[in-house]
Amino acid sequence: MTAAVLGRPAWEVADVIRRYGAAFRARHGGHLTAAQTQALRDLARCRTAALGGHVEHCLDCGHDRIAYNSCRNRHCPKCQALARARWLAREAEHLLPVEYHHVVFTLPADLSDLALANPAVVYGLLFHAASATLREVAANPKRLGASVGVLMVLHTWGQTLHHHPHVHCVVTGGGLSCNAHGVVDASPRWVACRPGFFLPVRVLSRVFRGKFLAGLRQAVAANRLTFPDALAPLAEPIAFATFVAPLSGKDWVVYAKPPFGGPAQVLKYLARYTHRVAISNHRLDAVADGRVSFRYQDYADDRRCKAMTLAAEEFLRRFLQHVLPSGFVKVRHYGLLANRRRAERLAVCRALLRVGPAAALPSSQRAAPAASIGPAIWPTCSQCGGTHFARTPLPPAATDPDTS
User: Fold this and answer.
1) Residue 296: per-residue pLDDT
2) Is 402 helix (H, G, I), strand (E, B) or coil?
3) Residues 146, 186: one domain?
4) H-type helices in 222-341, by residue range?
5) Mean pLDDT (whole number) for 163-189
6) Are residues 160 and 68 in the same domain?
7) Please, what sign has the CA dihedral across residues 128, 130, 135, 139?
8) pLDDT at 317 exceeding the cut of 70
9) CA 126 to CA 107: how far, in whole Å?
10) Does 125 fall in a domain?
């Protein structure tokens, strides 16, 4: 749903931070990362006088409106529309007129505390293990025998803001013929998946489990993990081996959703997932008396919409779990879509599929323009609907909502 349909939210995550953030930092500031502290500060100041802005003077009717600057923090629920539209416009050029598959790889809950203590390492391993699994199984001549294109998006949350790290993968329904090691043939051909079927989920699950645990053991051997507080006993090699051993016997969750029909459907999906944050402002129902109420979908109960109320301190604790380390890349490309040889590989794919560049595809195969997928990102006059403005800068105000 677009912002126009939903309307302006009554409450925002920023309201929770402005009301209760100072008390939260006073109690937990010593345990916050630099990225989490910055997120609290940025979200509280977003689109307020503290960041400055400009006066928009409508050249059509003369109406004036004050527009404050955005914080542009990637965890801010209000700052994703423009970044999403620009990203989608670039991504549309890389899509092929083929069926795409959606696969989700999820880490076991047993690894949650370890991931929170070592997010860059563990989330990096999640990306590596999941992408390597897809490419290895797809390259197997008994499965597909092709090098596929993979786009992966990291999400770390569930509907109630609990920690639930998983990656959403959008994978081409076919690829360039290759050997068992994934090396593309000198004169490749296009190998298509069976309609509606990608790769066996049970095989993906087992390979994923093996690759992740192998990478985890290597990280421990290289002293790349830390074990703070309650995790301290795991610093002992025998204790860590004992902790990891049961995970080898569990089924790891890999879920393959129904495939997308083509590029247009893929872009609509990506518009919802790539720049999503842990909770949108529209899900908040009330912020009062030290408590925050919000709506969520209960997937265990037929996706019914339910309400949850948390103490503001607990709400902020849960929200900040999902602030990623500075510089950590949450959207990545692999295989045919890997940045290094993407243009060359996609050109070969299009030649084999007998289509031109994305912009030259027939309208039935062309992806929808990025600007039409999400909410409107360009301002219009609230009085006359005009789009022509003269803008006068406003300097940042002396009062800071993050500290006042």
Assistant:
1) 96
2) coil
3) yes
4) 237-244, 263-273, 312-320
5) 95
6) no
7) positive
8) yes
9) 8
10) yes
